[in-house]
Amino acid sequence: MIVLKSRHEIALMKEAGKVVAACHEALRAKVKPGVTTLEIDAFVESFIRKHNMEPAQKGYRGYPFAACTSVNDVVCHGFPSDYVLQEGDIVTVDMVALHKGLHADSAWSYAVGEISEEARRLLDVTKRALYVGIEAAQIDNHISDIGHAIQTYVEAQGFSVVRDYIGHGIGRQMHESPEVLHFGPPHRGARIRKGMAFTIEPMVNVGTYACKLDDDGWTARTEDGKWSAQYEHTLVMSEHGPEIITEQAE
Asked: Does 89 count as an annotated binding residue?
């Protein structure tokens, strides 16, 4: 069941979204060669807690960290570790803040120093795919119109869209209805209504969209070892259309 959010709930989600966005803004200077992904995780946890919020991913279904850090061929849910980021890597940092019972969620991919032309294009196309999806998230459109727009754009650029991991409703639970696919035909599923809140979070691969899971049961990688990127925002729907509550300052 899709739960429409009240003004009060949306206000709390917006406060959480501001903290998530500010943390991503701060990470721009933090993500660089020589930094470990565990250091990134510690920074995220400290930042969220300093703003009197909870890092909601920590402990969620047994997940042991405040953030997911997905490097190069890792699609999503990468475990922070002693891995030292290298010049030319890309890393996606995914975080969720919980504020007075309401959540906000955003993932962002970062270049580590100077990256290859292919990696830069992957980041650019993936970020653009996020905003293509947001543009399709209009009142009275269908949820599937979002994924259709993303898939059409991404495949025209010569990349692929991950099928195994998708966007989701969000609010009092981290994951709620509706499911937000980043692929598929248009004009399917629920219509988008005022008060809905959900994430759009396309994961885009250089090669095949197929994924495989590491033995830790969380870390998803591309099946062919080629690189992947992800960008994610949390949206709330007003009568005027989508409002991005995790939007970052330029």
From this structure: no
